[in-house]
Design goal:
The complex is a heterodimer of chains A (about 270) and B (about 290). With about 270 residues, chain A is mainly alpha-helical. Chain A is built from 14 helices and no strands. In chain A, helix 3 crosses helix 14, helix 4 runs parallel beside helix 7 and helix 9 packs across helix 10. In chain B, strands 1-2 form a two-stranded antiparallel ribbon. Chain B is globular and about 75 Å long. The chains are: A mainly alpha (about 270), B mainly alpha (about 290). Chains A and B meet through helix 1, helix 4, helix 5, helix 6 and helix 7 of A and helix 1, helix 3, helix 4, helix 5 and helix 6 of B.
Chain lengths: ~270, ~290
């Protein structure tokens, strides 16, 4: 018996369109003039397409600053996250030590518990450390994320230790083994950790919201959210241009690493 | 052969996890028994369980809990049903499955702030939805300003944003079903509906429970949507638990009280987890044992 796929294609096309429609709408408004919203199909095609909002954005101003902050935070956090995940994951996978099971259990528990529980203490901690409103405050909490470590620990457990054992017999130091043998074999695992880490960092909202106080330190999600709060009329064109900018890197990451993103979701990175 | 001490490799992450993960978690517990205002840290003092007592007798707390539960109970069945149907449709096609899967999953990776902003523009007084209503002769709806529609509007957005996410999880579960089993059932002459009901659905049970669990935990934490769309209003009709926590902590500087709310949330999610685990443990299968093809 053969399934009839034609109906499925029609339904799936409709759903795919529905999934993308709000994002297409966002792009359309961002390519318009002024701050008004198109509300009818004639507005959609009839109004001129311009890059005005993007030009204004590139000319500087707060939105450009938000974008730079987001880029800085993600670019610094990402390599550190990868390095920490690989080294800690490797240690957890290959070594037996006191407290290992406790560490694993705590890290796993941390994945599921509502992360907002740590919001108030993090705020007080950063204030105490004098890190409030700095890049350090925006980056450091991401380094504690246990997902990458757990994922890499599992990755290394399923990888044979033979090569490493042979290298040890040959007299290579632990550091050299990690750099020359383990890391080159970690690519597929680190791709999953990296792209999911990037998405989490890039989209992070409530932590950067409370850990920054000045406008010049806001990341894109925080800046955009606060921009939309203004008591006066909202400039939708500018706001949705900023939103489009915030979505572009996600789209690129998705196009390149879709499989790894799904893999990460299945292993519980989703937040 | 292997060392009995942790290698130095664990140290950097271990330290970060200790300082920015575990310490805040425990500090929140301590704070929940204190009265603490960050503007006057010198006045910090222990107050026993009075923060908890206050929460459990506070109308706002119960209201925010009710709002959150309403959100959870209202969205999960809809999201789950739609996700199940979408996954089923995805499973019936072979060509282009990757494309459709990607298109349907993509919204789940977009920033919640961006999604909320787009929906805020759609729900605006002079936005697209009201434009359509006006064009078809129906009077405007004050989507986010009306006590009756504000929370459902946020729920609708949540459903839109999460169906694809859970459809992918359910689809992955479907793929762990051995094709021979399906083939055998078809050879026995079972109809498509019977195959779905007697073979696919029971196979997916653990995955579905996992999805319900994940969705419940995530829905209990809803915050960004509320922050962007309504800030808890109008008249507190969208005041969720975490938004309430945020307000107490960062508008009223009641760090102790906010931490008590946080721990009540933690306890609540813990109870949900335990109950779900019970249900999961009674099954043999692992929740998710296969990758995606």
């Amino acid at each position: 018996m053969k399934p009839r796929p034609l109906g499925a294609y029609v339904i799936l096309s409709a759903i795919a369109l529905l999934s993308f429609a709000p994002l297409l709408y966002m792009a359309r408004v961002s390519l318009g003039q002024g701050g008004d919203l198109p509300i009818s199909p004639s507005d959609w095609w009839g109004r001129p397409f311009t890059l005005d909002h993007y030009r204004a954005l590139a000319a500087g101003g707060p939105m450009a600053r938000f974008a730079i902050n987001s880029i800085v935070v993600s670019c610094v956090a990402l390599p550190l996250q990868l390095l920490l995940a690989a080294s800690a994951g490797h240690a957890l996978a290959r070594r037996r030590f006191l407290g290992k099971n406790v560490t694993l259990a705590l890290a796993t528990a941390f994945l599921v518990l509502p992360r907002q529980v740590t919001l108030v203490p993090l705020y007080l901690l950063m204030a105490k450390l004098g890190l409030m409103d700095t890049y350090a405050a925006l980056i450091l909490p991401h380094l504690a994320d246990p997902f990458g470590v757990l994922f890499m620990a599992h990755y290394y457990q399923t990888m044979s230790a033979e090569l490493e054992d042979a290298a040890r017999t040959d007299g290579l130091s632990a550091g050299a083994i990690f750099r020359r043998i383990v890391l080159p074999l970690s690519g597929p695992g680190l791709a999953v950790v990296g792209v999911n880490g990037f998405l989490t960092t890039w989209n992070a909202f409530y932590q950067p919201l409370v850990l920054t106080t000045s406008e010049s330190m806001r990341t894109l999600p925080v800046g955009l959210a606060l921009f939309a709060q203004s008591e006066y009329s909202v400039d939708w064109g500018a706001l949705l241009a900023g939103s489009s900018i915030a979505t572009l890197p996600v789209l690129v990451a998705f196009a390149l690493f879709q499989r790894q993103i799904v893999e990460g979701v299945l292993q519980g990175s989703g937040r | 052969m292997r060392g009995s001490r942790p290698s130095i490799g664990l140290l950097p992450w271990g330290l970060a996890f200790l300082v920015f993960g575990l310490f805040p978690l425990l500090y929140a517990l301590v704070l929940s028994f204190q009265q603490m205002n960050p503007l006057r840290p010198d006045l910090t003092h222990f107050v026993g369980v009075s923060n908890y007592a206050r929460a459990l007798t506070s109308a706002s707390f119960w209201h925010s809990l009710r709002t959150t539960v309403f959100f959870v109970v209202g969205t999960i069945p809809v999201t789950l049903t739609l996700a199940y149907l979408v996954a089923g449709q995805l499973a019936t096609i072979r060509r282009g499955q990757g494309f459709f899967r990607a298109a349907i999953f993509f919204p789940a990776t977009v920033s919640m702030v961006v999604i909320a902003l787009v929906f805020k523009s759609l729900y605006a007084e002079d936005g697209l939805l009201n434009g359509w209503l006006a064009a078809s002769g129906v009077s405007r709806v004050h989507w986010l300003q009306d006590v009756r529609t504000a929370l459902p509007s946020i729920m609708l957005m949540d459903i839109w944003g999460s169906v694809g996410y859970y459809a992918i999880l359910i689809l992955a579960g479907r793929k762990t079903l051995p094709p021979e089993q399906l083939e055998a059932a078809r050879l026995e002459g079972l109809s498509a509906w019977e195959v779905e009901r007697r073979i696919v659905f029971p196979h997916l049970r653990p995955v579905l429970l996992f999805v319900v669990l994940l969705n419940t935990i995530r829905s209990f934490q809803i915050f960004t949507e509320v922050f962007v769309l309504t800030r808890g209003g109008p008249l507190e009709s969208t005041l969720t638990l975490v938004y309430h926590l945020y307000e107490r902590a960062f508008y009223h500087f009641e760090m102790g009280y906010a931490s008590a709310i946080a721990y009540l949330l933690l306890a609540l999610v813990g109870v949900v987890l335990l109950v779900q685990r019970r249900v999961l443990m009674s099954r043999r299968e692992a929740p998710l044992s296969g990758g995606v093809g």
